[in-house]
Each structure stands twice: as C-alpha cells, then as structure tokens.
Write a structure and sequence with these properties.
The protein is an alpha/beta fold and 373 residues long. It has two domains: 2-159, Rossmann fold (3-Layer(aba) Sandwich), CATH 3.40.50.1970; 163-372, Up-down Bundle (Dehydroquinate synthase-like, alpha domain), CATH 1.20.1090.10. 46% of the residues lie in helices and 15% in strands. It has 14 helices and ten strands. The protein has helices at 7-18, 31-45, 65-77, 92-104, 118-124, 162-178, 183-190, 200-216, 232-244, 251-268, 274-285, 300-308, 348-361, 369-372; strands at residues 2-4, 25-30, 53-56, 85-90, 110-115, 129-134, 137-144, 149-152, 318-323, 341-346. Strands 1-8-5-4-2-3 form a six-stranded parallel sheet, with helices on both faces. A two-stranded antiparallel sheet has the order 6-7. A hairpin with a 2-residue loop joins strand 6 (129-134) and strand 7 (137-144). The radius of gyration is 21 Å and the shape is globular. The N and C termini lie far apart (48 Å). The structure holds nicotinamide-adenine-dinucleotide.
Length: 373
C-alpha cells in the first residue's frame, strides 16, 4: 500500500490501526537523513521521541553485508522479535538494506518505508526488491520482501540536494516514457528542460506506473517487470565505468543517458518512432537539464565488457528492454497503464552506434538528422 501526501494524514491513522500488532518499533536511517529528516518524521508521525533509532553511515558504499551484520547485532541487542516493526527512513540505500535485514530477521519481520529521496519515493521504496552490494557489484545479494506500507511525503524533498533530485527525476522520465497514458510524457515535454513540480499529484502519477507494472509481474518471472529496466543496461554500464575511472555520476543521470541509447536501439529495430526518440531527447537535454556524461570515445570497450556482465542478459547476449510505444490495444480492451515490453539483443556494432548517437544528442543544433540518414 502506497500512501502519498503528508505523513500526518496517513501514518498516524495507519499506525493507530496496527499498533496492537507491533511488539516494538525501530527506525533505521542514515547520517544525513538523521540530520535532515528524523525530527520532522517524529513530529509528523506522532511516534515518541525516544523511539529507538539505528543510524548507518550515508552512501552506497555502506549497502553491504557488513552493515547488515551490524544492524542484526543491534536488533539482537534490542531483542527484536518477529512482531516488531522496522521503519526505513531514508533513500534507496536505507530501504534496500533495511528491507534486506528485515526479510532475513527471524525469517521475516514487518517493515514500512518512509522514502526521503525522490528516487526512493518513485522507485526504490516500492515493489519489495531488497538487497546489498558485494565487491562493488550492485544488488548481487538480495530478496523480495514487501513493505507493509510506503509513506511518500514530498515535504522531505525540501532538504534534498539538487543533484539527488536530478537523479530521481530520471526515473520519473522513465515512468513517463513507459506509460501508455500519454499525459505524463506530454507534461514533461511541455516543460522540457525543467522538473515537473514534485508534488503529490505528479509523484502519484509516476508511482502508479511502477505499481501497475509490479501488479502484473511481482516477482519478475513474466518478463514484464523488466520494463522498469528501460535505460538500465546502458545506464548501469555508464554508472560503473564512470565510477571505476573516478568520474562518478548519479544513478538517475546514468539512466537518462541509458534511455537515450536504448530508445535509439528501439528506433533502429523499428519499434520506437523518431518522434518519440526526439521527445525523450528534448525532455532530457533541453536547458542542459541532464548535461552530457563525462564519457569518452575510448570508453566503448570497457562499457561493452560491463554490458556483457549485465544481470538481464540471456544466452550470452546483451539484452535491453524498452516499451513498445507504437503498440495499440484492441478496441474495447482496457489498456493497462503502460506499454508492453520488448526484449531485444544488442551486438557490439549496435552498442557503438547507440553510443555515437548519445554523443550526437549533445551536438549544438542536433535535430535527429542522424536518425533520418
Ligand atoms: N529496490 C529497488 O527497487 C531499487 C530501485 C532503484 C534503486 N534502488 C537502490 O536505491 C539506491 C539509491 O537510492 P538513493 O538515490 O535514494 O540514494 P541514497 O539512499 O544513498 O540517498 C542519496 C543521498 O541523499 C541523502 N538524503 C536522503 N534523503 C535526504 C533528504 N531528504 N535531505 C537531504 N539528504 C538526503 C542520503 O543520506 C544520501 O547521502 C541504490 O542503492 C539503488 O541500487 C533500489
């Protein structure tokens, strides 16, 4: 259940209805969120100020088994039983790690997510994927463990730095591109080069795309949930390559670049019309909303090696998944909120062409002429 709006409006009522069921409540958060959001959350939630808080250091580097071990130690010290509730207050690192710890604690304790980054509000806190990284391989150890509820309160975004907003907005652009209801993408196109207002209505629209996809493929067994990976085969490779070479970029910035590349692949394969690719291009690059990633031409080989290791690959082929945006539903059929997924393989030559297209996207005056050629 995802509640969108002020915590006062939703959490207190929800908690009052559940309270008899929790033996204890514990909050997991990170150092930045502790500083910026904990007091606000305690005030808004009505939980007592003495509610126990576990604080981990901020950042992806701490989404590890070692930190999970520390959390379990603290849970043991606090004698948390199966009837306790863990509240994950923070970004995707906290909800991934906390969800993972809760999933394994006594074979599963209950958890709620209170996301404080835009990325966690529209993506990471929703859908039950939890996990930790190992040796810099992201999310390699993990499990599904659905939160009892997610409380999305845009007030927490007030202290979020701009580059973190840009990261989360990348996932909102992705949801808009996946949505068969074209209102969201139209609104983004009209305001190209700026964020949509990050209010409850726009967050709800974006979140509904993810929840609708998950509703039909909760455990990623039908190939439909892969839609949410649009932009991520190229995007993860960009993120890792730039991280390894000391030029780190945020997840959302890498995904935006990945979406441009994968939309190009869709165009070449005849599935995504030029108009849609150019719409995505306008949304992402106008006003320099997403500046060009610090990639160089000779990054192509390391990028290809990274793409060959992608979790989504099948039978040694590099796979990408994008929405079939030209799909039209049978008359009378109620269309779902998203386009159906298309899974296609990419070889080295097509990967290179997509990368070249990405560089072209940032050439002054670019208007899609490469695509017409
Ligand atoms: N489980 C999923 O389905 C899923 C989906 C997408 C991403 N993820 C994971 O999410 C993680 C990224 O999430 P993220 O971008 O939220 O990163 P994050 O949790 O590291 O948060 C980013 C930074 O913002 C700080 N912060 C959080 N809220 C703040 C606030 N309100 N004010 C000021 N600072 C604040 C954090 O302390 C951190 O320094 C990655 O580990 C990724 O793998 C998971």
């Amino acid at each position: 259940m995802v509640f969108i709006g002020t915590i006062q409006a939703h959490f207190q009522e929800w908690f009052a209805a559940q309270q008899a069921g929790f033996s204890k409540v514990m909050i997991l958060t990170d150092a930045h969120v502790h500083a910026h959001c904990l007091t606000l959350f305690l005030e808004k939630s009505g939980l007592p100020p003495e509610t126990p808080v576990l604080q981990i250091p901020a950042g992806e580097a701490h989404k590890t088994l070692q930190t999970a071990g520390w959390v379990w130690e603290k849970m043991l010290e606090a004698r948390l039983d199966k009837k306790a509730l863990l509240i994950n207050l923070g970004g995707g690192v906290v909800s991934d790690l906390g969800g993972f710890c809760a999933a394994l604690w006594k074979r599963g304790m209950r958890v709620v997510n209170v996301p404080t980054t835009l990325l966690a509000m529209v993506d990471a806190a929703i859908g039950g994927k939890t996990g930790v990284d190992m040796h810099y391989v992201k999310n390699i150890i993990g499990t599904f463990h659905n939160p009892l509820a997610v409380f999305v309160d845009p007030d927490f975004l007030q202290t979020l730095p701009l580059h973190e907003k840009r990261s989360g907005f990348g996932e909102m652009i992705k949801h808009a591109f996946l949505a068969s209801d074209t209102l969201l993408i139209k609104a983004m196109h009209e305001g190209a080069g700026s964020f949509l207002p990050l209010d409850a209505a726009n967050l709800a629209n974006s979140i509904s795309v993810k929840t609708d996809v998950i509703a039909v493929d909760p455990l990623e067994t039908k190939g439909i949930r892969h839609l949410l990976n649009f932009g991520h085969t190229f995007g993860h490779a960009f993120e890792s390559c730039l991280m390894e070479s000391g030029r780190p970029v945020s997840h959302g910035e890498a995904v935006v670049a990945g979406m441009l590349c994968e939309a190009f692949v869709g165009y070449i394969k005849g599935h995504i019309p030029l108009e849609q690719v150019m719409r995505l291009h306008a949304i992402c690059t106008s006003n320099n909303l997403y500046p060009q990633l610090p990639l160089q031409k000779d990054d192509a080989d390391p990028l290809w090696r990274l793409m060959q290791q992608d979790k989504k690959n099948a039978h040694s082929e590099v796979m990408v998944c994008y929405p079939d945006v030209s799909f039209s539903y049978e008359k009378g059929e109620k269309p779902p909120n998203f386009f159906p997924p298309l899974h296609v393989s990419v070889d080295r030559a097509l990967m290179q062409a997509a990368l070249d297209f990405y560089f072209e996207c940032y050439r002054p005056g670019f208007s899609g002429q490469v695509l017409n050629a």
